[in-house]
Amino acid sequence: MPLNSVRPPTVSPETLLDALPDAVVVADARGRVTFANPAIHRLLGHSPGALLGRPLTGIMPQRFRAGHGDHITRFLTTGEGELVGQTTQLPALHADGHEVLIDVTLARVEPAPGAAPEDSSIVSVLRDASTTILLERQLQVSRYLAATLRVTAALTEAADADVAFQRLLPTLCTELDWDAAALWQADEHSGRLVHAATWTAPGVEVPALRAETGRSFGPGEGLPGLVRQSRAPAVLEDLWNDERFLRRAAARADDVRTGVAFPVLHGESVLGVCELFSRAHRTVPEELTEVLSHTGRQIGQFLGRLRAEAEMRSLAETLQRSLLPSHLPTVPGLELASRYRAGGGSALVGGDTYDVLPLPDGRWMALVADVCGTGAEAAALTALTRHTARAASAAGCPAAVLAAVNAALLRDQGAGPLRFVTAVCLVLEDGPDGRRAGISIAGHPPPLLRTADGAVVALGQPSAPLGVDAATTFTDSTVDLPCGSTLLLYTDGVTEARDDAGGQLGEDTLQRLLAESGCTTAEATVATVAAAVEAQVTGSRHEADDMALLALTVPA
Asked: Full-prediction pTM beyond 0.70?
């Protein structure tokens, strides 16, 4: 038999429909079920035979039957309706009484030629929507989480809590697609929530809400107060008519319909409340409020840490200032200038210090010291070094001053690692041609003298650092500082400043810098050296050390 004469087996439409995994229900022009395939039992628990002759709306919850019955009648008679040509999610009634959310697709079967219009039929394809809903929710949650990660990333680049709060609103609105946002922070004096910032998306203006920023909210007052009291997000889907929103008139004026707010929490403390506003009347899913609640705690922890770090830096700066003179004194016949640069890294307090003070006999003492290490222990040693040197300055001998500091450091040494100090001490008096200096050095870089003709020479003979050995002997040497000369005292943060490749500035470079540049005054000297150090460490991966500079110029 020729192949083209083979006919496919005949399969009835009912057999085909019975094999489909989706439930199929057919109704006549009156909306009565004329066919249902076996999949309806798996979906809604009804046996196909039990549905025959029953209204199609019978598988809907009671509250939907009247409205959807009219839609079905219009659909059957005209072929038109809201449900045509699209899949709609609707609740269906399971045989045991509970509701099942289903996807419904409707089609109208025209009557055969010559048949009456009432012979038309409606075909409904029903599918369990739970998998689709779950997937949509998972995608939505993923989008929310990705948005909050971008918010967190934006905040981590902020230098302090104030900058972080400024970045919070625009990032949240942009990532979560809201039109405007407001931030309310707890006032440390009144304890009420006061306005901190308002942000709007490009092209959106909310002048009426901005005019309300003079308000403050106590616990339970308005949307911010409600969120603060509950420490949980709150959703107001109709801002115009919800009495909990005290700015209803402003919301109407700005055409803002929906709002959601969440607390920024650090532990149990509410740092602030963030409001998000939408001009569209939108439903806020539970997934979003859960993400916002979690985000509020993450932001709160981050901001709390930033605030603590800011307070710590403020305390450290205060402590650092106490280890340095507030200003340099006026010394007759001398020009003085100084620079201090804190090191990099996590250390909040450096160990470098300098001092200039008068002696009872009219002479002057100058000190530059560098404590091993950084942090609180280094600060304590710096304070001990500075105050001991001041107390011992009456001896009028640089070596005696360093010996007193050495003894004090040794007495203060605990059981921890050895902490030592390097220092250079000068005692200045009038000389035959300018000034004369007595110099004593304890493990410190020697001072550099630049004469009027540009020659640079290192002065003094270093001995061992302070705080290492009680038997260390400190000696004095005396040098003349002629008119037009400049003496530079510095710490090793200058010569050991490293570029990205690890190369140090070095003593030779420093001497060449003093000789070749216009370092003819104390101020020009410290400015030139500080600029060279800054250029050396800029862009370097290596942590910069503290730097202290003290320059003394004898005018020509």
From this structure: no
192: DSSP letter: S
Spatial CB neighbours of 451, under 8 Å, sequence gap ≥ 6: 457, 482, 484, 485
Q: Is 406 in contact with 442 (CB distance < 8 Å)?
A: yes
The dihedral through the CA atoms of 448, 450, 455, 459 has a sign that is: negative
d(CA 348, CA 313): 6
**Fold designation for 324-553:** Phosphatase 2c; domain 1 (3.60.40)
| DSSP designation for 84 | B
Taking only the tens place, the pLDDT of each residue in 137-194 is 666 666 666 666 666 666 666 666 666 666 767 777 777 788 998 989 888 888 899 9
What would be the CATH architecture of the domain defined by 142-314?
Answer: 2-Layer Sandwich (3.30)
* Alpha carbon distance 425, 437 (integer Å): 10
DSSP helix, strand, coil percent of the chain (3-state; round to 5): 35, 25, 35
496's tokens? 């050991």
Superfamily of domain 3-128: PAS domain (3.30.450.20)
The 10s digit of each residue's pLDDT in 478-505 is 999 999 999 999 999 999 999 999 999 9
Q: Using CA atoms, how far apart are residues 521 and 329, in angstroms rounded to an integer?
A: 17
Please compute Rg for the chain using Cα positions: 41
Same fold, 3-128 and 142-314: yes
Distance CA 156, CA 233 (A): 23
Burial of residue 6 (number of CB atoms within 10 Å: 0-12, 13-18, 19+) = exposed
d(CA 275, CA 260): 6
CA distance 255 to 279: 6
Q: What angle do CA 90, 95, 100 make, to 5 degrees?
A: 25
Which amino acid makes up residue 253?
A
Residue 306 three-state SS? helix
Place of tokens 């002696």: 359
Could you give the angle at the alpha carbon of 457 between the alpha carbons of 455 and 461, nearest 5°?
A: 170
- At position 537, the amino acid (one-letter code) is V
Tell me which residue has tokens 């395939």.
37
